[in-house]
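Researcher: Here's a chain I'd like modeled. Treat it as a single chain, no partners, no ligands.
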Amino acid sequence: MSATFELGGDLRVNRIGYGTMRLAAAPEPGFDPGAGHIWRAPEHRDSAVAVLRRAVELGVNLIDTADSYALGENEELVAEALHPYREDVVVATKVGVLRPSPTEWIPLGHPAYLRQQAELSLRRLKLDRIDLLQLHRIDPAVPLADQIGALKQLVDEGKARHIGLSEATVEQLREAAEITPIASVQNLYNLGDRHHEDVVDYAAAHRIAFIPFFPVAMGAHAAAEGPLAEVAAELGATPAQTSLAWLLHRSPTLLPIPGTTSIAHLEENIAAGAVRLSEEQFARLSAIAPAEASA
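Model: Modeled as a single isolated chain. C-alpha cells:
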C-alpha cells in the first residue's frame, strides 16, 4: 500500500490530508448546532493557525478548503497559516455553492459565477494558480458541460492546475471527462456510509483521486465492543485510526481528509497512515453493515 498518490498525475501528495471545514466559529445563537453552519472563522484564530501549521509539519501536504466555508474566511485562514506555501503543499478549494444564510448551501453553476469565485479564491489564498479546483456541487439547472467548461477555461488561463468534482456519480464523471481531464472526486464515504462504492471503484480504475469527506464514521468508534473496536485493539490503534486505515486499504486512490480543531486528534489521524490491516482484518471490517458502523 503506497503512502502517497500522484494527484492529477503530477502532484505527489501524502494520502492523509487535512480538511479545513471544521475550522469555524460556533453556530449563531438560535440556530440548530447540527445544521452545518461553517458561517464564520473561528474565534480563537491562533489555535486554528497552529493546527494548520502542525499538519504541514507532520507531513500533510493536501489542504482542502472551499470558498463557501465561512464565506471565504476559511481560505483566508489557510493563507494566514501557510503562505508562503511550502513547495510540496497542494491547496484544493471548491466553488459553486451559494451561502445566503448560515444553514443554506445552494448549488450555483453559472459559468460566470464559477469563474468569479475562482478569482476571489486566488486572492484569498494568495495564489497565482489553484492546484485543485473542485466543483462543490453540480447545479442541476445548468448543463454540466457549461460548468466544467468554466473550470476548463480557468485551467487554460493558468489559474487552475487540475479540476475535480464533488458529490458526483460515475455517469457525471464520465460526462465531465469527455470535456477535460478530471483529477479528483470528493464524495461522502466512510465505514458507515458506502453508497458511493461504484465511484470508488471507477476512480481507482481511472487513477482519479477519491477524496472522502467525513472519512471517520461517527458512533461506532465510541463503542467498547464490535468488529471495529476488536480490530483496533489487535492493531494497538484507536478506532478512528483503524477506520482511516480501512479507507487507505480499500483503494489506492482514496485520500481521506479528516478535519479537527485539536492538535492531539490531528496527530492521531496522521498516525493512521502507519496502521496496516491484514486482509482478514480488512474483510472483517468490510463486512460491517453500514448502519451498524454509524449507529
